Amino acid sequence: MKLPKEIIEKYREPFISELGNYINSELEIIVKVKSKRLMENKNGQKYLLLTFEDKTGILRAIDWFNAETNDSKVNVGNIIRTSGKVVVYDGRLQFNLLQDSPVIVLKEGEYSIDRFVMEAKRSIDEIMDEIKKLIDSIKNVHLKRLLNEFFERDESFLKKFKSVPAGAKVHHNYVGGLAEHSSTVAQLCDSVCKTYKNLDRDLLIAGALLHDIGKINDYKVTSKGIEITTQGELIGHIVSGYEMVKVKVKKMKVPEDISTKLLHMIISHHGELEWGSPVVPKTPEAYVLHMIENMDSKLNRIFAIKEKELEGNPEKDWSDYDPNLGRRFYLKHELD
Amino acid sequence: MKLPKEIIEKYREPFISELGNYINSELEIIVKVKSKRLMENKNGQKYLLLTFEDKTGILRAIDWFNAETNDSKVNVGNIIRTSGKVVVYDGRLQFNLLQDSPVIVLKEGEYSIDRFVMEAKRSIDEIMDEIKKLIDSIKNVHLKRLLNEFFERDESFLKKFKSVPAGAKVHHNYVGGLAEHSSTVAQLCDSVCKTYKNLDRDLLIAGALLHDIGKINDYKVTSKGIEITTQGELIGHIVSGYEMVKVKVKKMKVPEDISTKLLHMIISHHGELEWGSPVVPKTPEAYVLHMIENMDSKLNRIFAIKEKELEGNPEKDWSDYDPNLGRRFYLKHELD
Amino acid sequence: MKLPKEIIEKYREPFISELGNYINSELEIIVKVKSKRLMENKNGQKYLLLTFEDKTGILRAIDWFNAETNDSKVNVGNIIRTSGKVVVYDGRLQFNLLQDSPVIVLKEGEYSIDRFVMEAKRSIDEIMDEIKKLIDSIKNVHLKRLLNEFFERDESFLKKFKSVPAGAKVHHNYVGGLAEHSSTVAQLCDSVCKTYKNLDRDLLIAGALLHDIGKINDYKVTSKGIEITTQGELIGHIVSGYEMVKVKVKKMKVPEDISTKLLHMIISHHGELEWGSPVVPKTPEAYVLHMIENMDSKLNRIFAIKEKELEGNPEKDWSDYDPNLGRRFYLKHELD
Amino acid sequence: MKLPKEIIEKYREPFISELGNYINSELEIIVKVKSKRLMENKNGQKYLLLTFEDKTGILRAIDWFNAETNDSKVNVGNIIRTSGKVVVYDGRLQFNLLQDSPVIVLKEGEYSIDRFVMEAKRSIDEIMDEIKKLIDSIKNVHLKRLLNEFFERDESFLKKFKSVPAGAKVHHNYVGGLAEHSSTVAQLCDSVCKTYKNLDRDLLIAGALLHDIGKINDYKVTSKGIEITTQGELIGHIVSGYEMVKVKVKKMKVPEDISTKLLHMIISHHGELEWGSPVVPKTPEAYVLHMIENMDSKLNRIFAIKEKELEGNPEKDWSDYDPNLGRRFYLKHELD
Amino acid sequence: MKLPKEIIEKYREPFISELGNYINSELEIIVKVKSKRLMENKNGQKYLLLTFEDKTGILRAIDWFNAETNDSKVNVGNIIRTSGKVVVYDGRLQFNLLQDSPVIVLKEGEYSIDRFVMEAKRSIDEIMDEIKKLIDSIKNVHLKRLLNEFFERDESFLKKFKSVPAGAKVHHNYVGGLAEHSSTVAQLCDSVCKTYKNLDRDLLIAGALLHDIGKINDYKVTSKGIEITTQGELIGHIVSGYEMVKVKVKKMKVPEDISTKLLHMIISHHGELEWGSPVVPKTPEAYVLHMIENMDSKLNRIFAIKEKELEGNPEKDWSDYDPNLGRRFYLKHELD
Amino acid sequence: MKLPKEIIEKYREPFISELGNYINSELEIIVKVKSKRLMENKNGQKYLLLTFEDKTGILRAIDWFNAETNDSKVNVGNIIRTSGKVVVYDGRLQFNLLQDSPVIVLKEGEYSIDRFVMEAKRSIDEIMDEIKKLIDSIKNVHLKRLLNEFFERDESFLKKFKSVPAGAKVHHNYVGGLAEHSSTVAQLCDSVCKTYKNLDRDLLIAGALLHDIGKINDYKVTSKGIEITTQGELIGHIVSGYEMVKVKVKKMKVPEDISTKLLHMIISHHGELEWGSPVVPKTPEAYVLHMIENMDSKLNRIFAIKEKELEGNPEKDWSDYDPNLGRRFYLKHELD
To answer: What are chain F's domains?
Structure first.
């Protein structure tokens, strides 16, 4: 039996960010252990200091009762289920473990990984609908057939495409990030074609939708977060994306003049050798794809920084220094 | 009396590119002297070898009759009016000066500078209409008023804005180039706002239309081509554009939170310090403006390269190496 | 009533660096709270661990009596007045708060900000005298008038010029730093003119005195230290300095050939695009200003490093690695 | 009938470098037209100035008899067969075309392309023997089988591998260059393994032999010299080499742990992103391959420069500046 | 009396890495004090928390008995001898100082510095033998004599050459590192000469053995680790190595054509100006030396990383990010 | 017999720049042959077109009488003595060789090399006087003695020091350039010490005078211009200057603390590794020397550009683009 989403959502354990609603209540939570430290006071009594986390925040916890037992049972990185009382201590929330409540270490499958990784804000179905509309709008039969071969008929591909992020840290670093990034880039390319009439719209949209698909091999989403795979480190999405498209253009018999230009777009989309493309863009379409793709990656990060900083402090004028983009960002609200 | 454009066009002297229609005819032309060389044959007779040019091409000419007189009268770079016969020699067109036709060196004002500088393909009126529509669509009253102060009421500004190029060599290097570039960038920014809803559209379009206006001080269009002015070398459009906008935001009393963000967009639009912006973009709008502006500059150059190369040889697969963009471009026609 | 400086100095509360003279005495201090931590021992008694700082150093403090009251009253970053006893603990000075002495959080204006920010070693009056002598030595009437318009008649400018630093971290990062840097650079430029006779001394000195004046908009000195303003982040001193000079050259009707060269010096003084100048120096004077300005900035930092390291340990041979200059410095005393 | 090599060699037309042996003789030559210019003397007689070339040098030629006919028959870049007399004029050899000898423009297939492109000094058979010995020495059955699949059984691959150069200009820019470079790199890798015992010799040699095989798609050797193909410009040998190996490892069922490391070596062999590798070497073997491959490329160029310069002038101490390597090379003979 | 190595090894105090064999035993150790902290519990009892280290690892220690006495006696960085009990606490080894065992601070000479610095894995005698064999194989009498002047007759040089490292942090950062690096590079150069016959083998091997000898002035090995000397910071091994060789080539009357090429190899061996060579390699031998030297430095680091990581966790797939080489390394065992 | 300078100057052959005073006269000149071309007119008569040059300019020449004889006698690069008539042809001066005047190729020693290389504008004696005054002003006896050992007692050094340039192309590229550069840098350093009181003036001046002395080994002045020597290419002035000073500090027993700091200044004076210093400046004096030395080098070039451009065209506003400094320079005269 598969429960409806609403039911699951209603009866799930609260997230850390929701515990403010439960002060002085006792309740059960599912969290990841971020750190632990066994302490001892003067007269030899042991207690266990813990930090818990899920995708919504972190939480200080203390176990006064089963410190040594739980210290040996639990490792940093474990996902656990336990009960405790939510209290306020030293101005912050704290979770005091109950005396008679065991700490249960959960195995993969016994908890939803969604508790520990961020997701795209928009639903994946909505994003996939956008992609399908874009494919439907393509006139060139070879490119349309090729795209459908990926987005209509390749179940294994689709499953991964819908779930992987488009980055581990810098941008679109959440479940569904690849789909969201691909769709946004394709939409922007579509807009750009309205201004530059002599761009090949079909080619540009096909390139936009396929440019990052190699990333389905690069990332692994676990309770530990987004990790880069061995395949991702040794080969990388530029080359594995090329290979995925090459296999399908052969299968679908896409004419070589089309397929070569499309494959060129895949491998040149980072724009410069030093950014990891083995060749630079040498067609207008490849050039536009690179520029638009780059803009979406950076904007996704900028908006994420603004959102996170203003959540923390709505009065803040400037973000902290972002080492990735090499600057601080101005946070003041926009014009009305 | 100001003649209608059609009349002027009809009765003007032919361009060099049109001389193929006049083989073996005698006619009058207005050209620039690109090079000259006084020659002497064995028996002491002098003749004058010349190369002429206008914006449509170059032309070999020879003066067998008044070589020494014309050699001392004419300097390289002069604009001249003269008559001759169009012949074919050694597989190319050649212009043989007539014996009894004097060479007249024209002064500025005696010829249309349009013969010697390239122009935007689209009419300047069409471009200005686009700009006006964009201004009309702006909702923020301060920004709309500010833009109208430039584009409606500042005649001196408008005259220059409509005529200067947006570059001396690399991109939009023709009369009307600044207006065309500004309009295209603003339209692309408008499109981008449809995808990223939390961009401040009014601010972005205002920044797009104003970002390069300092260029009216940077370039001087003469019969010698596009030259950089002393002001352009010593100050540059980034700073002089800032100053032009600053003077008007003070006059129009634009609130400081708006004007500072707008001025930041002007000076940060080159995107990186090493590309000449004294500060990098620190708002999403400044970042988008930089990316879009950069894309339009590069695409304008890429399309110009493709057009020029295919004009020369429609069968060519690859452009020559372009030192500015550091690559060759693929010229093959697009998909049907 | 304004007390004489000597009186103020005599009766002021001691600085942290002076507390070694008061061991085992009780006294009152004014300090900034750098960190605090509420602690609890086994039997539930709370105590408050604090770190204090002023411009002369840092100090460990402990409050055994009013821990919770003071913890809720005081925030990190507050300037406080309190009384305690100076003791030696674990080899270092410690300040034990007294039981019956309240901690008073001071507001801006209730304390002298001078306690918390460093100052130039030389008096600001001495520096301003040097600047005036340099202005007096200028022969070109336009430039002399322009400089006097800033340094004689613009009170609001002068007040800021005398107090702001010339940097937040790297060099001249203290009150009076801008004035000191400007004067030193102008003096060095004066010396250089004795060797290179064909430099325009008047122009060079004027450029030296004005090159960094935009920094009066870039920094804000508070008890938190030197902060970069929003204006400093979004516009920066290169462009705002240009604007300040441009406004005054218009007002004073400085001839354009002079003013353009002067303005060029302001915006090109960082020397290279990647160091934030939108144009590179294109006159000998602009080039010299850049080189001398750069040398003074670096030497100011090098001397500050040497001084600070040798203060800490007069026997040290080598400074720690300086990430800003990318090297260690040799500290050994110079030849006698 | 296929003639033996010796016969072909004996009866072939002489190369330009051999014409010094035929002064004042009449003979037939096969050359490429490098330039031509139709001239006219005072009394209207036309003559045709030509420059010929083959892989051994260039030659001035003149046609006094059929200037206009031949001018319209021959284009620059054509390969022609013609007869003339070898003379010495103005200190250099000159070829005077005979009156009654026609100029025949040859089509591809009517001449040996070998006349116009340089070849490796060592015979291709010798090089292939070295490669085979290296393959025989490999112990890992998967890698040995994979290599034999390329070097024993893939005739189409082998034909191209033996003939293409390893570069268009910089190094190994001659027929057989790829084979020579691959063999040399593999031998050096073999040597290196004797010093570093924990390198995986089989993997390293396999990577060395396969690292550049994608170059069979990058270059086209024609009478015009070595040209980069569209495939070479748009995809490049790094990615196409990866693809070639990937297809065969799948076919040969090479275990994934081996094949991934091998494929990583192919795509990382340029060593740095800015040199065109989409990933940097992350195994010791990939690192060694990059270093050795780089060394052989550079040394091949250095030795070619030394040889060419000393051929021109055996007394020369220093080569001309080499823009590719950014220096001059010392040419003095080595120690005895 | 000098004890045999085996005896010294047998009766020495255990290293930290060996303490796992002594759990719950009391024993004497010689360690360096890495950190210390005097603590006090509620009722005023003091205890001293310590961290010890030697070249094999670090160790937590606690002194419950003589905390204040030992706190004032011992400084961070001291080498001490003391006795205690090895216990397991909080999952890690801990060393509890005994009540009646004094802590003795050792002076230089009272302990073996070998306890605190790493050594080459291979014996220095084995390495020196390799070097001698290489020298014996040299045919050029001048170079052989020169090398013997260093490696046979200069005792003071030899003593330092055998003990200094070839780097402080990045590679060969252990006692004997310089000798090991020099020998390995010379052997690789020897191998390379078998492939490139026209390299001058004698010159190359001489350069390889001498290229880094200036490092005997750069490093000082103390119990604190490897430190850079003032000579190393202000002059550096490139220049001081040049000087050392120059003095000896003069003494040995090496002909100038040989010595200049040899000295060029010393100063150009870093390969690029930005890597610290004042000139770039301009002979094939100098170029090869640079490449091989660079490869050995990097490989030494890569193998050290692999070894250390797999020691820590034999199941690990990927090393941590190495900031020096800018990447992670794949750790999976090689093919069988 | 050595003639007084005035006599030599009076009776010397005129320079090319002086020929305007001899139009239509016959006279004898000494020039270098820059190019030659043997021509033939229709009726078979040969004539020889020549270009001559000396340090003051270039000159077109024609030999109508002994074309073939002189063509075979003279090579490009030869210095010749010949007679001819100065005429004006095609608006420029031309030198027509006389029928009965032979062309004499001169050997080294038969002409003054001064005709072909530029010299410092100031007399070398004046420059050496400045240097002596600076040495006299030094208080530290070791440094004074060391400098006198070079500048008073080392005749062989002094002879070279006075004549070599400080650069082949970029700056101080004329006879006496090294002395002029050294003196100017030392004077500027002297000035700088008046502002920064804690600089070690003696050390700084000694470093300034010695920093570039290695250049006496780098350049060779011949009639072909300034050439870099093999020593200059393979070792370079940074290292050879270090060696020269090291030899003398040993001889003069300069204490090591002084000599090490001085030697550090020599090798670090290029300021950055990528500019050829093997170590960066790590003392304030080394840092100042680098900055001042750099400034003088650049200013010398800038002033040379301005002078040369304004000589050519006093009305020019902007110099041509200078590839070495990467910009154009503003040429407008300075303020009065």
So the answer is: 5-115 (2.40.50.140), 124-306 (1.10.3210)
